[in-house]
Amino acid sequence: MNRVRLSHKLLRSYGLAWCLLALGLGVTAVAGLIRFKQVRELDQLRFHRLVQQATEALRDRLAKYEFALISLADFAASRPSLTVAEWGFRVRFLGPEQNYPGLLELGVTETETHRRARQANDLGFAALKPSLVESNALYLLHAWVRPPSAYDGIAPRFFSDPAVKEAALLAARSGYPSYCYRRQLSSEVVGNPARGFTIIVPIFEPGPAPSPANPAASTDRELPAWRETHARGFVFGSIEPNLLLDHLFGTAPREIEFDLFSSLPPSQKSWLNARGPAPPTLLPGFKAYLRTGAEMKFHAQEWTLNFHTTPLFERESSRYRPWATLAVGATLSTLIAALIFIQIHARLRQESISAELRSACEDLQRVQNERERISRDLHDGAIQSLYGLQLTLGHYDRLRTRQPQAADEVMDQCRKTIDATIAELRTFIVQQAPEEEVNAASSDPLLTLRQVVHRFQSASSVPIHLLIHLPKHASITHHQEAHLHQIAQEAISNSLRHGHPHHINIELEGRDRHLRLRVVDDGSGFDLAQSHSAGQGLANMQARAAQLGGRLQVETQPGHGTQVTLEIPMEPEYAAARA
């Protein structure tokens, strides 16, 4: 039973430790996830701020390049003809190599239509105004190429490229700069042919544009047509994107990178800042901590920028701190739970050892109690019987010569006493009777008490009177009977041995739901304070009274006799009979 209770207690204690561990891990996980969400939101805000800054910086830089080309176009439009000296002065004034990094080509062209009209005027013929769509070529008037150059000037095939002519037509019709796709330029970058995109700005003949009564018609048909026919040529500038971006954002490692595309949606053909065989952001297996796409509109064209974070951004980020917090919290929770487990195990082990020690002490106490019980029983039983036998033999010795017949009766009594003593000792050897037999009610509860009185009366000349006041339904158990027998025998024996009385009165009565046994003599009495060191008779009687749940009182004074009173609770049968 103790082991079962200990096992249940063990499970409850360890269950508490498991609950604490689960609670600690749960709290740590929730805190880590909340912190991770906060860090993620902060990183996204920082990333979008960097994206916005990069987009605005690129838009401003391209607007600066556009303004420079527009100023060249205005300068060319203000001259009937543009000489080499004028072009060179204007380019040097612009300072493209110092002020416009990445601008590798500059040039001014005229259309075939304008070329014919100019030549016709020079020959005295009327100027023809065919549409730009009908022209098949653009003629390079002046150019500037950033050295070092692997080519002598700008490749002629550039002007016959359909994409260039399409961009020029779009610029002429809209009146705004237009952008041409990425192509190979005439310059070199780090020993390799450069590639970049071209900005084309139209040059118109001086004169007012038409303004018909219907503005819608002007917008939809007449104004673009007028622009087409009055386009003298174009100013173009070719830009290498990587040089532009390196000068704009620096060459040091950046927190974000992006791929620049001149189309929407992005494609490999429209990839402008190429640094490899394919755009990384378009590869299927490309992964980044954060990535996004942004659109940048230039007049009638839309560009795409695919941004993504770099390892530098991730190093500056706190994204791993929540996981570290989670790991540290889980480790601490596990360590605390382990310490609790160890403490609970040690405490339960200590309780187990304490329980074993208590059980051993209880066993020793039971052995000691049993030893004291046997000692009391021997003292109150066999020894008192032997003392009574001694008295009987003394009485026999006195009667042997004077009254032989009475002496023989005394001898028979001695034999019976010896037989009873042998039986009592045999009982000690075979231990006590079963509990059912001990607790069973005796058929004659006063027989043992009468036998004790008769035995002492036959062995002594002192009159012993027994007085009993009990109802007819009264009954006592063998357990009570045995203790009453031992207490009465000890009280009578002490009176005869030490008190030398003239009379002994024994009274047993039932009153107020209690049984009361009183042994009174008129002997010499004794000093109760000095009696505890003389023997263990009184202590045995006190112990037996405690076992019966009652109390024993001894009243005596030297020269005034002794009165021993035992009072114990009635048994249930007796109480029911009284009721």
Draw up the topology in text.
Elements: H1 2-77, H2 84-94, H3 96-99, E1 103-111, H4 112-123, E2 138-145, H5 157-160, H6 162-174, E3 178-189, E4 192-204, H7 215-230, E5 231-239, H8 241-249, E6 256-261, E7 291-298, E8 301-309, H9 311-316, H10 321-399, H11 404-429, H12 435-439, H13 447-459, E9 464-469, H14 478-499, E10 504-511, E11 514-521, H15 537-547, E12 551-556, E13 562-569, H16 572-578
Care to describe what's here?
By secondary structure, the chain is of the alpha+beta class. The protein has helices at residues 2-77, 84-94, 96-99, 112-123, 157-160, 162-174, 215-230, 241-249, 311-316, 321-399, 404-429, 435-439, 447-459, 478-499, 537-547, 572-578, and strands at residues 103-111, 138-145, 178-189, 192-204, 231-239, 256-261, 291-298, 301-309, 464-469, 504-511, 514-521, 551-556, 562-569. It has two domains: 39-316, Beta-Lactamase, CATH 3.30.450; 443-579, Heat Shock Protein 90, CATH 3.30.565. A hairpin with a 2-residue loop joins β10 (504-511) and β11 (514-521). Mean pLDDT is 78; it is low at 123-130, 213-217, 430-443 and 573-579.
